[in-house]
Write a structure and sequence with these properties.
Blueprint (H helix, E strand, L loop, with lengths): L2 H16 L18 H12 L12 H5 L15 E15 L5 E8 L4 E6 L1 H11 L4 E16 L6 E15 L6 E8 L5 H10 L4 E7 L2 E9 L3 H10 L1 E6 L4
């Protein structure tokens, strides 16, 4: 019996359970298609506050591994730029004293949750995206570290609170993948350092080299990992080529 059948028959099962004199409880179970997976997950979260069947981010584990995680945000510095992805959950709006609207939501990945704030201009830009419930998204923003005093009735304590001030947001399905990088080489570059980087971070991004307007394709590949890409870009002139997904 699938979940749609159980929901359809729920009232009959409750009535039968109430009838203590029924020796052979019988009820009709219709032949109906099961609920879509998205509907199951939404119902689970609405009623239980967590997911049971699976996690909506299971299909995005590879993309998530290429980005920073929620649990690493607590170690970031105030004002640091970050990029991460997860589920956009518990969306709220508030009207300011100036009659503008701010947005708030919790971003949940496979490691935890963090509060995200959209100031009025950013909210106006992305309010259509915020209308989608439990949407997998990729966001960019700035870390905000605050110290709050909590009075627990005995001895108060100061607690560090980490938030993200959002600057960009995009549905995770539309995030493009880097297919190729082209590294522009000049006479001042250190070829040994380049080789070390490329061999330390193998992946699925093809690599070509450009030197004096000539392009050389290599058999090497590089990682999509954000930190690895930053390390390469900090030492060399890198041009990225994306897929056509968005």
């Amino acid at each position: 019996m699938n979940r749609a059948q159980m929901l359809y028959s729920l009232e009959d099962m409750i009535e039968i359970a109430k009838d203590k004199d029924s020796l052979e409880p019988v009820f009709f179970v219709p032949t109906v298609d099961d609920l879509p997976e998205e509907q199951k997950l939404e119902d689970e979260y609405d009623h239980l506050g967590f997911f049971i069947s699976s996690h909506p981010l299971d299909n995005y584990r590879v993309k998530l591994s290429q980005l920073e995680s929620v649990d690493s945000m607590q170690y970031k510095e105030h004002g640091e730029l970050i990029t991460l992805a997860g589920l956009m959950m518990d969306v709220e709006t508030r009207v300011t004293k100036k009659k503008t609207t701010m947005g708030f939501f919790k971003l949940e990945d496979l490691t935890g949750r963090i509060d995200v704030v959209l100031f009025p201009r950013t909210y106006d830009q992305y309010k259509n995206i915020l209308a989608n419930k439990n949407l997998p998204v990729q966001i960019a923003g700035k870390i905000e570290q605050q110290t709050r005093y909590i009075d627990n009735g005995e001895e108060g304590e100061e607690v560090n609170v980490t938030k993200i001030i959002l600057t960009k947001i995009k549905p995770l399905e539309e995030v493009r993948k880097i297919e190729q990088i082209r590294i522009n080489i000049n006479s001042f570059d250190n070829p040994q350092h380049l080789y070390d980087l490329l061999t330390q971070h193998p992946g699925d991004v093809s690599i070509s080299l450009e030197y004096e307007s000539l392009i050389y394709h290599t058999s090497l590949s590089y990682s999509q990992d954000q930190e690895a890409m930053r390390e390469l870009e900090s030492s060399f002139n890198v041009q990225k080529f994306y897929d056509k997904a968005a």
